[in-house]
Amino acid sequence: MAHQDKKWQNFYEKAWSIRAEFMSEFLNGGGYNALQIIGELDKKERLNHLGADENGDLKWHKASSPSQKFNFANIPHNKITSLNGLNILVPFYTNTSVVNMIIDALSFEHYDSIVELGCGYGQNLFKIFYNGGGVDLKYFGGEFTKSGVEMARKLANIEPNMKAEFFHFNHLKPKFDKKFDFGERVLVFTCHTIEQVREIPDNWFKVVANIAPFVRCIHAEPFGFQIASLGEASQNHKEYFIKNGWNLNFAKTLKKAGENGDIIIEDALLEYSCGTDPFNPTSIAVWRSV
Fold first, then answer.
1. Which candidate in 57, 105, 141, 240 could, as Cys together with 119 as Cys, close a disulfide (CB 3.0–4.6 Å)?
2. Which InterPro entries does this entry report, sorted A to Z (predicted)?
3. Is it the case that residue 175 has pLDDT exceeding 80?
């Protein structure tokens, strides 16, 4: 049965609201484009994180790091991440770019639109637009939180050359308004958004596969432990998800959709990332409509 704990729905509503408040300072001040505003938030979050205080309120906290710091600035040398089931030490600025992966995927075939499901305030879509996605492509973002959708729309309003629309989307009850014209060929992607949904519904993939005549979907989601344990990081990942009540049925539901003939699974790669959280490594799954 599809399920997501209310505490996580509330957490992300508050978290996006706080981020939106921070970005609004730059939006209201004028002179910034959407990518610059998103860049200000990225800069904030590299060395700070949102965490609950003693009263349970979300606040910005300076991120702690066991790494040595540079002499000229309070910037860590290294960070702990994970790759292929192993915890590893890498330079602080090492990150796997899902955005660049999506941009490159767009370049190999023609697509009329790109859709991110669980897009937050749309940062990935704006980065794709500015870094090679193209002005002819239509950009769509589905997001559960009201604060995320509102902020994404505000950013889109200052980008007249970007054909973007943002709408409410619930992974527990996936559906799409018929007013949206996605075109004939659509690239859909998700990035660490299904992770917070304990169980996605059996029809999730079938619904998404039917939004256009041809749909390809790329999932950058932390599901690797659901398929195989590659090492210590995989086990830590599994325990972390069970503790948080996060997703445990993505891989099973994906496989079932393939067996039912709802989709054709094209590729998968487990724990393929050097992300910011060693307990939450990204895996990749790619499928297309039948």
1. 141
2. SAM-dependent_MTases_sf
3. yes
The answer to whether position 237 is within a domain reads yes
Give the range of the structural domain holding residue 109, as residue numbers without chain letter.
93-289
Cα–Cα nearest to 95, from 278, 235, 226: 278
Query: Would 193 be classed as within a structural domain?
Result: yes
For residues 182 and 140, is the Cβ–Cβ distance under 8 A? yes
Q: Give how many domains the chain has, as a whole number.
A: 1
Whether 259 contacts 215, CB under 8 Å: no
Q: Would residue 64 count as lying in a domain?
A: no
Q: Give the pLDDT confidence of 24-49 residue by residue, as tens digits.
A: 999 998 889 999 999 999 999 999 99
Residue with tokens 């790759």: 83
Closest CA to 148 of 188, 204, 100, 193: 193
φ, ψ of residue 98 to 5 degrees: the values are -65, -35
Residue 285 and residue 267 in contact, taking contact as beta carbons nearer than 8 Å: yes
Any domain includes 7: no
Q: What is the CATH number of the domain that holds 279?
A: 3.40.50.150
Task: Select the highest-mean-pLDDT range: 12-16, 35-39, 66-70, 72-76.
Answer: 35-39
275 neighbors 95 (Cβ within 8 angstroms): yes
Strands 138-143 and 163-168: parallel
